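Sorry to interrupt, but I need a hand with the structure work. Go ahead and set the record down below:
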Amino acid sequence: MTLQICVAQLNFVVGDLAGNAQKIVDAARQAHAQGASLLLTPELALCGYAAEDLYLRPAFVAACDDALQTVARETAGLCGLHIVVGHPAPAAGGERGRSVSRAPCLNAASVLFEGQVTQRYAKRELPNYQVFDERRYFVPGDAPCVFEVAGANGQQVKVGLLICEDAWFEAPAAAAKAAGAELLAVINASPFHAGKGDEREQAMRLRVLATGLPLVYAHLVGGQDEIVFEGRSFALDRNGALAARAPSFAEDLFALTLQSPAEAAASPSRFGVVGPIAPEQSLEADLWHALVLGVRDYVGKNGFPGALLGLSGGIDSALVLAIAVDALGADKLRAVMMPSPYTADISWIDAREMAQRLGVRYDEIAIQPEFDAFLGSLGPLFEGRPFDTTEENIQARIRGTMLMALSNKFGSIVLTTGNKSEMATGYCTLYGDMAGGFAVIKDLVKTMVFRLAWWRNANDPYGTGANPIPERIITRPPSAELRPDQKDQDSLPPYEVLDAIVERYMEEDQSPAEIIAAGYPQAAVEQVVRLIRFNEYKRRQSPVGIRVTHRSFGKDWRYPNTNRYRA
């Protein structure tokens, strides 16, 4: 006996209920034409993940139910096809402490068969850590869901349904097995961070080994604000071995053929699957594709006609431009060089060369007249005081104003170019280089910025041009060029040290004492930790940026601005 399964690894848009429903219908028709008996869609596919406080609006939940009925009606003629659709659903009753006007929801999945909702499952384990807030929106389910799907010869296969976090715990899978499940189908919307794909496969392997059941993992792909989902759906045989894997960072109607135990025993995997296993990618490749997808979807899903950025001749803006061109194409990008009196000639030369290599529109706007005008107006008030960060910040704020004016006039979004090391230490200017709509490399420390620049020069994954970043941009010492002969390391520890401290303190929650005990200089640790604390007010006003680590300066990081705790 064989069972044909398709996974709709698709890119859904939050709130586009009609569009999402149509994507599911189209996938169902294609899956049916290929002979599938079961189609799995990702977690909350119908409304998009995550819809956040939209879940608290009864009208939104009701509209999701209408969309579900549309999918059921439009797929009624697909005989023999079971469709699992993720969506929010109203929950009976309430929960203590909840507003009466905010009806509690279920994070649900409905099984559609020939136009009818035959079963519904409610997610049992609701994550409330990192970027997750599911206990704010949902109440947990308490019962398994097992449904039967007919294989090629009419023999029934019992499928146990789980939703994402459920499969990271023993009880939901064990309950599904106790209810008769012969296969675990897990639908997911699990945000990407570096290394998460391997973590998922290992966690699902534990579920398989605990239950003795094969498992299919259906995953979302696409960008949603700061979060990226990389796809990489997969299947494990009943021994926990990888049997199939879909591509990462791409839509795919992922087709699987499951065999009964007797037939599977003859196959090398012992769980027969038709289709290739997409290969693993390097860390740099994963990060690059995540950033490209994040930019493409944020710009595209929000309706911007294109993007623009300040191209300084430095490494950060160069990397952002290369990512943006891979994401959007050169014709939708505009690079603006805004030299000041302190801009080195090589910065002009390298910025021009990079724009030429990538074929983007390039403009130069000297900011000397505006800078002189500011100094002239403020001169009487500043009399007797030396040149300091005030004048440096004025230059950055002039540039931010220029970029925002171009954005307003032409409709393109401004991409900011600050990295995680700068966000951590406040080595950035509020309303200056922080001004913009989307922070592309906000979650990349500086050392990773350099690694990705070298990687992109050695690889051309989207065919937009090889070696896009002039080598001198990567090799010259980083500088904000806001005063004569300025270097980043005049104010900050070496980036190798700084980044390690940021990762240990901010991402791993290590104390300063623990970091010092690990061998890092006490003065550097104290300086970096002090800067992280002091600059919370800046980060609160920074644009949303793409999350690629397990803890970013976004939903993962919620510290008070007013705070006297010092450990």
About this structure: Confidence is low (pLDDT under 50) at residues 94-101, 266-273. Residues 313 and 351 are 5 Å apart (CA to CA). The longest strand covers residues 82-90. The longest helix spans residues 389-410.
